[in-house]
Amino acid sequence: MKQLGKHLLVELYDCDSKFLNNSALVEREMQKAARAAKATIVRSTFHTFSPYGVSGVVVIAESHLTIHTWPEHNYAAVDIFTCGTSVEPYTAYQVLKDAFRSKNSSVIELKRGLLEDPIQKARKIVRRRLVKQQQPA
Question: pLDDT digit string (tens) for 29-44?
């Protein structure tokens, strides 16, 4: 089955909190991750919250990378959503894991936009017709 994109839901635990509250550093590392993954950066925007925490997005031609940090919990939540096959989302994940010095992390991969290929679709149609033909009238 064909998919339009990959969406990684990343949990970064036990990070170095001084990195997680620095908006400029978080933006730099997110852009570095996008470039390492061979993505095309369109633009980025980041915001620092009071008293702490950073949220931001790097928009890429192939979709986006987003982050929200909780320095007080040494934690960051990251989404890496890529379309097509030219971008390497797991490379971006590794760059961010290393950059924020995460000692524990997890990743869930979602396949986005699952589409049937034409052959699979045709087979289903044929099977349905055969079943209907076998049913008594």
Answer: 999 999 999 999 999 9
Q: Does 83 qualify as catalytic in the annotation? A: yes
Q: Which of 23, 44, 55, 68 is catalytic?
A: 68
CATH architecture for the domain at 2-134:
4-Layer Sandwich (3.60)
- Inter-residue contact 81 to 7 (CB < 8 Å): yes
pTM for the whole thing? 0.83
The DSSP H or E segment spanning 111 is: strand 104-115
Please confirm, yes or no, whether 68 is among the known catalytic residues. yes
Q: What are the tens digits of pLDDT across the range 116-127?
A: 776 777 777 777
* 8 A C-beta contact, residue 62 and residue 82: yes
Coil, helix or strand at residue 69: strand
Catalytic residue among 64, 83, 102, 105: 83
Which of 63, 64, 102, 105 does the annotation list as catalytic? 63
Domain ranges, ordered by start, for the chain: 2-134
